[in-house]
Design a protein that fits this description.
The complex is a heterodimer of chains A (312) and B (428). By secondary structure, chain A is an alpha/beta fold. Helix content of chain A is 37%, strand content 15%. In chain B, strands 1, 2, 3, 4, 5, 16, 17, 18 and 19 form a 9-stranded mixed sheet that branches. In chain B, α3 links the parallel β8 and β9. The chains are: A alpha/beta (312), B alpha/beta (428).
Chain lengths: 312, 428
């Protein structure tokens, strides 16, 4: 097998073969969930640090569980990242973590590029758990895993990503992964929340959700930040829902075998309604489970995958 | 001291000179240029070297007053000498504002005491750079300010800038402007486009510059005052300035070496040494800037030398301050990437770094004409060296060019007939 990366910083770097290797490893990891004793000895004696500069429950917990099931020791560090109360710099923190013997650092940070900066200043493996508007590779991997699990293959599928593309690291990472796998990608959102240059990534941009939903194989609904209406990006959440929300009426437009994804946590009644979350086509809870499997696979692979207990 | 610079290729765009000549220097002035000159002066062998007018930089942050940990007039002027510059204009720093005669005199005194090259102070346009009240321009000029500039801040209120321009006319003080609409620039940290999108960094649209360039050109036209547009970075800005010049507006402009060579595709989001203001733009903007330089729309090249401490730059890209140093790399970078590649002629480059900046602000120098101050730079056009900012003279090392192999370095710099740099060593 070919995965030789020490860090996982961005989907942009990964080839289709590397992504597939992660997903195959994740499938093996997921099999373990069915066992009575879930714990594997793979990362015994290794220390994983969850270094979170932004609040997060599900990603942090997901990494923590993944690490624990691989028998790593986990340390959680939550840093108040207010620029007003600026503490020690990221590079200083890196030195501290190195001195404490961290083997893997999972970092979430409000600034794009922070994981790459950390990776340059530390020996440990660095996994990006979301950096600003840049990337969130494990989210894209779990989305790809979920699609592949349900559909068999990602190639040729039409994947529609709806919402605030401009600020979304989930969208960016998904676009790289989906394009690497040969999916057709359309993004839908208001022009104020669509960044420039997407066409250069082979992505189709539209403002009309009702036109694309009937031809979507997968619809990935992004979370809309409530603050956006105060920064002249959207007039109101109400109008956002009217134009882009996955409402009960729009569920009717979706193909019977379409998949509904949401990275969570959802603003119910804003970008997605309860009925859509409960719809049989939704894989939102499956995504959470798959997230743990994918993160186990990533932890296993970046630490060298020496123990073949998981892949067996 | 009297000197005879023998056998160099003299490139002096002010006189249209480009041939092998000897240069005689005495009493701090150029005496004559000629072939096979002889005399009892000290002879400097300049064969296979270029002998050009000392370079002049329109915007250099020398760190004083206020940022002495990052740069001082002593270190900054040494970096200038090492880079082939014989004169620099001291850009007003952040804090304290150089908005009264006391600070202008301070800069001049420090330059006299510690400086290696000539230092011309720039002073603020508005008090505390706040963009509301005018500075005492008459007093600032009397203290030695050669032009007015509010640091890298745009005067947001058009009415204030209009009055500043009107008032400056009385003293014939050029007003330098930084063109960036704060609201459009927002929290942007790099050029808005494909690369800001994939890097996940907030973008500064080209339009943020262009709307202010358009406004300031109109205010220059309205008031008749000489406006100098600092660090032009976009194709549309070049077009706006070209059109304004064609209808006779008194405007001049400059571009930085980095903006002539690097693009937004080069930006490394994990290295804030790629964070400049204005941001590095696209390849087509670079092409337009070069065209502007060739046709004279852009008058000159200015380094925008902005020293920052290593710890200030070794942080997350969006948290880091803007700016890079450039005094020691400006000439080698442009020789390597523009002249040696044929994108710009040697005459054009030297003119845009000596004669034209002198003319823009009415400074002495920029010429090897007999009688002119003996400010001379000797360049070895084929000397190849890997740039190591740790070996530089600037106190700061914030540059994206560390490790670059550059060909064509200044080897000697003379100010008023005195050598201040020889063979890479700054001497006094």
């Amino acid at each position: 097998m070919g995965f030789t990366r020490k860090h996982l910083i961005r989907m942009r770097d990964l080839s289709a073969a590397e992504i597939q290797e992660i997903l195959d490893t994740a499938a093996a990891c997921k099999d373990i969930f069915g066992r009575e004793v879930k714990k594997m000895p793979t990362l015994r004696g290794q220390v994983m640090v969850n270094l979170f500069y932004e609040p997060s429950t599900r990603t942090r917990t997901s990494f923590e569980l993944a690490a624990k099931w691989l028998s790593a020791d986990v340390v959680n560090i939550a840093v108040a990242s207010s620029s007003v109360v600026k503490g020690e710099s990221l590079t200083d923190t890196a030195k501290t973590l190195a001195a404490l013997g961290a083997d893997i650092v999972v970092i979430r940070h409000p600034s794009a590029g922070a994981p790459a900066l950390l990776a340059r200043s530390i020996e440990a493996a660095v996994i990006n758990a979301g950096d600003g508007m840049h990337e969130h590779p494990t989210q894209a991997l779990l989305d790809l895993f979920t699609i592949q699990e349900a559909k068999g293959s990602v190639a040729g599928l039409h994947v529609v990503i709806v919402g605030d593309i401009l600020h979304s690291r989930v969208a960016r990472s998904n676009i790289w992964g989906l394009r690497a796998f040969g999916a057709r990608v359309t993004v839908v959102g208001p022009p104020t929340l669509i960044p420039p240059g997407l066409e250069e990534l082979g992505v189709h941009v539209t403002y009309d959700i009702d036109k694309v939903l009937p031809e979507a194989d997968v619809v990935n609904i992004l979370r809309i930040q409530r603050e956006r209406q105060h920064t002249a990006l959207i007039p109101s959440l109400r109008e956002y829902t009217r134009c882009f929300g996955l409402t009960r009426e729009r569920l009717e437009l979706l193909k019977p075998d379409a998949l509904i994804l949401h990275p969570g946590p959802a603003n119910l009644g804003v970008e997605i309604v309860q009925d859509a979350v409960a719809d049989p086509r939704a894989r939102i809870h499956e995504q959470v489970t798959n997230g743990v499997a994918v993160r186990m696979a990533v932890l296993y692979l970046v630490t060298g995958g020496r123990d073949d207990a998981v892949a067996a | 001291m009297r000197w005879l610079l023998k056998g160099g290729r003299v490139v002096d765009p002010s006189q249209g000179t480009d041939m092998v000549l000897d240069v005689r220097v005495a009493d701090g002035r150029i005496v004559e240029l000629g072939q096979e000159l002889t005399g009892d002066e000290n002879v400097i062998d300049c064969r296979d070297k270029l002998v050009v007018p000392g370079l002049i930089d329109l915007r250099t942050d020398l760190g004083e007053p206020g940022r002495e940990t990052a740069e001082t007039i002593a270190s900054g002027t040494r970096a200038a000498a090492a880079g082939g510059f014989t004169a620099v204009c001291a850009r007003p720093g952040r804090e304290p504002a150089v908005d009264d005669a006391g600070w202008v005199s301070f800069v001049r005194q420090r330059a006299t005491a510690d400086g290696v090259v000539k230092v011309y102070p720039l002073a603020a346009v508005t008090k505390a750079y706040a963009g509301n009240e005018l500075v005492e321009m008459g007093e600032l000029k009397a203290a030695g300010a050669v032009a007015l500039y509010d640091g890298d801040r745009t005067i947001a209120r058009a009415g204030v800038l209009r009055r500043a321009l009107e008032y400056a006319r009385m003293f014939a003080l050029p007003v330098m402007v930084h063109c960036e609409d704060e609201d459009l620039a927002g929290r942007g940290v790099m050029h808005e486009g494909f690369h800001s999108t994939v890097n996940g960094l907030a973008g500064i649209p080209a339009t943020a510059e262009e709307v202010i360039v358009a406004r300031d050109l109109m205010l220059a036209e309205l008031t008749g005052t000489h406006v100098h547009i600092a660090h032009v970075s976009t194709a549309a800005s070049v077009a706006l300035i070209r059109a304004a010049k064609a209808r006779g507006v008194r405007v001049t402009a400059d571009v930085t070496p980095h903006h002539l060579v690097l693009t937004d595709a080069d930006v490394q989001p994990d290295d804030a040494n790629w964070k400049l203001r204005p941001p590095l733009r696209t390849a087509s903007d670079v092409e337009a800037l070069l065209e502007g330089l060739r046709d004279g729309t852009i008058d000159c090249i200015a380094t925008d030398h902005t020293p920052c401490l290593e710890e200030e730059k070794q942080v997350e890209f969006d948290q880091a301050p803007f700016g890079v140093i450039g005094l020691e790399t400006a000439l080698p970078l442009l020789l390597t990437r523009l002249v040696h590649t044929g994108a710009l002629s040697l005459n054009e480059l030297i003119g845009r770094m000596s004669w034209h900046p002198a003319r823009v602000l009415g400074l002495p120098g920029g010429t090897l004409a007999p009688g002119a101050p003996a400010d001379v730079t000797v360049i070895d056009p084929d000397l190849e060296r890997v740039y190591d900012p740790r070996k530089g003279f600037s106190h700061s090392r914030n540059t994206p060019l560390a490790g670059w192999t550059l060909r064509g370095w200044p080897v000697a710099t003379m100010v008023d007939g005195r050598w201040v740099m020889r063979n890479g060593r700054v001497i006094l």
